[in-house]
C-alpha cells in the first residue's frame, strides 16, 4: 500500500490528487495529527460511505468544530436525532414549499442587476450574498431585511471564512464581533416571534420553535441555515460568471436561450424548468468549482471501504472538488463544457457528481439554492454580459472577490 501523503500537501494542491497514480487505490491515506485521515476518491466508494452505509457514520471533525460554535444543528447531528430534526424541518424548505413561495422568490430576485449601470464595476460576491440572504430570510423566516441585508451578509461571510478554524473562546476580535452580531439578529427574531409577531404559516422559524428545544439551539439552527444560504449559491455563481466570461459561445447561447424563453420580461421560478442550457452552465460550474469542497465523516466502528479497513475514529474525507475532476468520468476535466451536463449524464456513476452531497445529510437546501441561483442568473444574464479582468484568478475560497463590469446585451 502506498505510504500516506502529508495532509498539508494535499490541502495545498487537492487537484494534484484527482487522478490516482499507478499502484494507488481508491483511497488516499494522509498523515494528519492523531486520527488517521483518508480521502475516498472512487465514486462507488463515495456512494457507499454517503448513501449505502450513511447511517453507520457520524459527522467528521470539521462539523464537530462547527457544533462547538453553533450547537447541535441539523448538519452536525447524527442518527435518530438527525432524522427527527430533518423530518421536522423539511416542510419549510423542501421542493413543494419552494414552489409554493415562487412568487416571493420572483419578487426578490427577478429584478437582480436591474439597478446596475453600464460600465460601472460591481463587487459581484457582495451583490450575490446580499440578494441570496434577503431571499432566504424572506422564504425561511418571513422577515424583510431591507438595508440590514448587506451588513448581515458581510457578518456571515466573516464567520464562514473563519469556521473551519473557529475554536471558542479564542476567536479573533473580528470574528467575535461578526458572531455576536449574527447571534443578536437571530435572538431578535426569536424574541419577536415569541411576543406574537406573525410569520408566514409553516415557515422555518415556526417549525424550529415547535421543536421544543432551547432558544440557543433555535438560534444556532437559524445561523447555520443563513450561513449556507449566503455563502454557497453566491460562490457557485461567482465561479459560473468567471467561466462564462472566458467562453463567448457558452455565454451567447445562454443569452439566446433567455431571449427566446423570456422575450424581455423578468424571469420567474416556473421558467427555470424551461432553460436547459442555463441549468447545464450552472451544473458545469458546480462541477468545476463546487462551493462545498469537502465533506467529512467519522465511522462509528471499524468499517470496510473499497476493500480496506478503516478504523473507528478516522476522519474520512469526500471531496466534490477532487471527485469532479476525475478524467475517467469527465473527459478533459479542466475544460468548461456545459454540454456534458445536458440530459441525464448517462454513463456517469452515482457518486461522481456530488455538489449537493448525497444520502442522509444531502443538502436540504438544494431546491432553494437552485431557485436562488437560477433566478439570479436568468435576471442578470438576460440584461448584461459581465466582463471580467482576464488576469483575475479562478475564484476559490481564498481569492479576493471578483469585480465585474456589466455591458448591455
Ligand atoms: C450552491 C448551493 C449549495 C451547495 C453546493 C450546498 C452543498 C451542500 C452539501 C455538499 C451538503 C452535504 C454536507 C454533508 O454531507 O456533510 C449540504 C448540506 C446542507 N445544506 Fe447545503 N448547499 C447549498 C445551498 C444551501 C442552502 C441555500 C441551504 C439553506 C438555506 C443549505 C442548507 C444545508 C443544510 C441545513 C445542510 C445539512 C443537511 C443535513 O445534514 O441533513 N444549503 N449542502
From TrEMBL:
It comes from freshwater metagenome. GO terms for molecular function: heme binding; iron ion binding; monooxygenase activity; oxidoreductase activity, acting on paired donors, with incorporation or reduction of molecular oxygen. Residues 390-409 are annotated as: Disordered. InterPro entries: Cyt_P450, Cyt_P450_CS, Cyt_P450_E_grp-IV, Cyt_P450_sf, Cytochrome_P450_monoxygenase. Its cofactor is heme. The lineage of its organism: unclassified sequences, metagenomes, ecological metagenomes. Pfam families: p450. This is Unannotated protein. Belongs to the cytochrome P450 family. Keywords: Iron, Metal-binding. Transmembrane segments: none annotated.
Amino acid at each position: 500500500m502506498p505510504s500516506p501523503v502529508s495532509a498539508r500537501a494535499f490541502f495545498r494542491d487537492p487537484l494534484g490528487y484527482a487522478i490516482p497514480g499507478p499502484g494507488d487505490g481508491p483511497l488516499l491515506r494522509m498523515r494528519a495529527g492523531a486520527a488517521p485521515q483518508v480521502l475516498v476518491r472512487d465514486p462507488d466508494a463515495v456512494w457507499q460511505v454517503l448513501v449505502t452505509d450513511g447511517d453507520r457514520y457520524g459527522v467528521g471533525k470539521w462539523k464537530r468544530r462547527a457544533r462547538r460554535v453553533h450547537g447541535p444543528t441539523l448538519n452536525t447531528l447524527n442518527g435518530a436525532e438527525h432524522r427527527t430534526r430533518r423530518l421536522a424541518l423539511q416542510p419549510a424548505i423542501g421542493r413543494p414549499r419552494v414552489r409554493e413561495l415562487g412568487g416571493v422568490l420572483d419578487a426578490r430576485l427577478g429584478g437582480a442587476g436591474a439597478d446596475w449601470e453600464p460600465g460601472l464595476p460591481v463587487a459581484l460576491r457582495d451583490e450575490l450574498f446580499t440578494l441570496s440572504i434577503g431571499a432566504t430570510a424572506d422564504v425561511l423566516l418571513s422577515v424583510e431585511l431591507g438595508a440590514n441585508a448587506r451588513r448581515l451578509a458581510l457578518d456571515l461571510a466573516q464567520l464562514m471564512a473563519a469556521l473551519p478554524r473557529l475554536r471558542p473562546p479564542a476567536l479573533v476580535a473580528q470574528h467575535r464581533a461578526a458572531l455576536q452580531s449574527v447571534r443578536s439578529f437571530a435572538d431578535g427574531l426569536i424574541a419577536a416571534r415569541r411576543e406574537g409577531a406573525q410569520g408566514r404559516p409553516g415557515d422555518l422559524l415556526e417549525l424550529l420553535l415547535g421543536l421544543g428545544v432551547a432558544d440557543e439551539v433555535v438560534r444556532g439552527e437559524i445561523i447555520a441555515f443563513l450561513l449556507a444560504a449566503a455563502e454557497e449559491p453566491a460562490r457557485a455563481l461567482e465561479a459560473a460568471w468567471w467561466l462564462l466570461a472566458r467562453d463567448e459561445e457558452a455565454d451567447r447561447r445562454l443569452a439566446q436561450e433567455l431571449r427566446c424563453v423570456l422575450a424581455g420580461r423578468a424571469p420567474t421560478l416556473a421558467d427555470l424548468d424551461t432553460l436547459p442550457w442555463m441549468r447545464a452552465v450552472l451544473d458545469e460550474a458546480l462541477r468545476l468549482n463546487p462551493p462545498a469542497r469537502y465533506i467529512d465523516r467519522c465511522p462509528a466502528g471499524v468499517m470496510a471501504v473499497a476493500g480496506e479497513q478503516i478504523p473507528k475514529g478516522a476522519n474520512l474525507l469526500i471531496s466534490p472538488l477532487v471527485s469532479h475532476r476525475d478524467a475517467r468520468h469527465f473527459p478533459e476535466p479542466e475544460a468548461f463544457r456545459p454540454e456534458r451536463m445536458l440530459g441525464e449524464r448517462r454513463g456517469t456513476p452515482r457518486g461522481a457528481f456530488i455538489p449537493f452531497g448525497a444520502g442522509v445529510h444531502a443538502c436540504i437546501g438544494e431546491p432553494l439554492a437552485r431557485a436562488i441561483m437560477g433566478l439570479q442568473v436568468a435576471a442578470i444574464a438576460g440584461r448584461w454580459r459581465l466582463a471580467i479582468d482576464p488576469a483575475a484568478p479562478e475564484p476559490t475560497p481564498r481569492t479576493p472577490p471578483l469585480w465585474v463590469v456589466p455591458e448591455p446585451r
